[in-house]
């Protein structure tokens, strides 16, 4: 396989460049989405369980 | 359990009520923004012929704004990411104010490119036919990734404070409270959440630092990869980068001083912070002076014909007034102020920082226009000329108004000082190592 020709084709042809752009930005979007989910996803130990324990702010 | 911060009430105070003054300010800024929008529509209908741009001056004030706003955007990442990695805990109260500059100036930087295009819909051609030979595609990739990462970095560090707004601000309008509920993503101040958040922010700080370097270097390569006089130099990357960090840090000083005054945050944004920024600014001003001397001495000594046309234009020709004004604004006056006056005076610091930013905008202008007027091959003919026209002036004013508007609105709905990052104690932490409380002399100017 001619790696040099492949690299050359990547830079010289319209299309592959934008695919890489979409992969980079799209990949980052997906990565950040799961990262955010991982940060906030913990057991909600401190959350009140009964209606009486709801914080005052919820009524605002 | 919420983080314990003695300044929580002070920091949340600006969020409780939107004053008439705020509405007036927002209204005035919106009017300016709309005038820019009208000018852009006018330009879209009539074409770029109504601007001051012509052959061979294809880039004018719009690209100046692009470089300037992207430069401003480096403030947040510098303060939040680079100083975070360096373990500079004093930066904690400044982080959000600086990151907000990044977040709100990037759209206007990136948007300036679209405004500069007579046919903005052709931006889609980058997606359909983009090729990696072109620095434009490098630039779009880098700026898009930077914008996305900045939003995430900003939002993640805001999460605990949004949750605090949700829990504490009980008398705000229902829609505002609902907004906090949605944006808080169910954050419940769990110690594990804080551990994960800090771990992610530390990791992202490294990545953001690399992005900062990449983005402004790639922006500079839009110029450097051409063979035009004044641009085609290997130094242009670090030259642009350091200039961006300089103007960004100066912008942080201005914003902090305004916030401190408007929202009475003297106890949180104490004089010590301004003094730390002063030292950084001295370093950046001197670093940038070194870059300029290295650049212009190398060009001048070579005495190459095309290069000398542009250089002479800057030193003693059409752009000499602007060039030497820029030198005085960026180097001479700020250095004198920082060394002799700025140590205990926020007012002088702000004055110097405003001068730096005016000077940096002028610098971006004279990097672009003289080369465009005398490009390689056409320098002998000396045909080029450029003066910004009305649409360009209106759109430029609108960009600055839009940045201020976004910032002003944001500070009325979200805490501009990070409560959890400046807390004395975090859930699951015996004692926070984040930051030191304000010194006793904090409130004095």
TrEMBL record, chain A:
Residue ranges annotated as transmembrane are: 14-35
Could you tell me the superkingdom of the organism this chain comes from? Bacteria
Q: Which UniProt keywords apply?
A: Membrane, Transmembrane, Transmembrane helix
Please indicate if the UniProt record lists Membrane as a keyword. Answer: yes
State the protein's name.
DUF3149 domain-containing protein
Native source species: Candidatus Desulfolinea nitratireducens
Q: Read off the lineage from the record.
A: Bacteria, Bacillati, Chloroflexota, Anaerolineae, Anaerolineales
TrEMBL record, chain B:
- Cite a single Pfam family from the UniProt record: NrfD
Q: Where are the transmembrane segments?
A: 23-45, 57-85, 97-115, 135-158, 204-223, 235-259, 280-299, 319-339, 346-369, 389-410
Entry's localization field? Cell membrane
Q: Which GO terms describe its cellular component?
A: plasma membrane
Keywords (A to Z) from UniProt: Cell membrane, Membrane, Transmembrane, Transmembrane helix
Q: Which domain of life is it from?
A: Bacteria
Does this entry carry the keyword Cell membrane? Answer: yes
Membrane topology term reads:
Multi-pass membrane protein
What family does the database annotate? Belongs to the NrfD family.
Full protein name: Polysulfide reductase NrfD
Q: Which gene encodes it?
A: nrfD
């Amino acid at each position: 396989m001619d790696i040099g020709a492949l690299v050359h084709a990547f830079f010289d042809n319209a299309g592959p460049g934008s695919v890489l752009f979409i992969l980079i930005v799209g990949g980052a979007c997906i990565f950040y989405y799961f990262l955010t989910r991982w940060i906030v996803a913990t057991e909600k130990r401190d959350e009140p369980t009964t209606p009486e324990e709801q914080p005052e702010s919820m009524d605002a | 359990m919420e983080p314990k911060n003695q300044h929580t009430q002070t920091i949340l105070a600006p969020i409780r009520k939107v004053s008439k003054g705020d509405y007036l300010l927002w209204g005035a800024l919106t009017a300016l923004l709309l005038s820019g929008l009208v000018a852009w529509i006018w330009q879209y209908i009539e074409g770029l012929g109504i601007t001051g741009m012509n052959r061979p001056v294809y880039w004018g004030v719009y690209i100046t704004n692009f470089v300037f706003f992207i430069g401003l955007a480096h403030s947040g990442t510098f303060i939040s990411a680079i100083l975070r990695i360096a373990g500079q805990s004093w930066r904690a109260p400044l982080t959000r104010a600086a990151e907000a500059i990044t977040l709100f100036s990037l759209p206007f930087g990136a948007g300036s490119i679209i405004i500069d295009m007579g046919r903005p819909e052709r931006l889609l051609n980058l997606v359909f036919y983009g090729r990696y030979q072109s620095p434009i595609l490098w630039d779009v990739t880098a700026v898009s990734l930077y914008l996305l990462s900045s939003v995430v970095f900003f939002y993640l560090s805001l999460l605990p404070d949004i949750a605090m707004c949700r829990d504490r601000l009980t008398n705000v309008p229902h829609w505002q409270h609902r907004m906090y509920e949605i944006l808080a993503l169910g954050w419940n101040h769990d110690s594990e959440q804080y551990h994960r958040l800090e771990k992610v922010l530390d990791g992202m700080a490294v990545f953001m630092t690399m992005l900062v370097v990449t983005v402004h270097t790639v922006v500079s390569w839009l110029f450097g990869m051409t063979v035009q006089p004044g641009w085609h130099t290997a130094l242009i990357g670090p030259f642009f980068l350091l200039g961006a960090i300089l103007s960004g840090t100066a912008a942080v000083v201005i914003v902090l001083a305004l916030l401190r005054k408007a929202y009475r945050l003297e106890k949180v944004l104490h004089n010590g912070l301004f003094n730390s920024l002063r030292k950084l600014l001295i370093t950046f001003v001197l670093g940038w002076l070194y870059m300029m001397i290295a650049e212009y001495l190398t060009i001048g000594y070579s005495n190459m014909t095309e290069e000398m046309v542009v250089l002479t234009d800057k030193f003693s020709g059409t752009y000499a007034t602007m060039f030497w004004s820029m030198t005085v604004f960026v180097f001479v006056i700020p250095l004198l102020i920082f060394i002799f006056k700025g140590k205990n005076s926020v007012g002088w610091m702000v004055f110097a920082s405003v001068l730096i930013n005016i000077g940096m905008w002028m610098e971006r202008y004279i990097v672009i226009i003289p080369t465009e007027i005398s490009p390689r091959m056409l320098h002998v003919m000396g045909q080029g000329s450029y003066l910004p026209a009305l649409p360009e002036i209106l759109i430029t004013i609108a960009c600055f108004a839009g940045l201020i508007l976004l910032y002003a609105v944001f500070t009325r709905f979200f805490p501009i000082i990070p409560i959890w990052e400046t807390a004395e104690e975090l859930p699951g932490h015996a004692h926070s190592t984040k930051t030191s409380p304000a010194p006793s002399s904090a409130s004095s100017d």
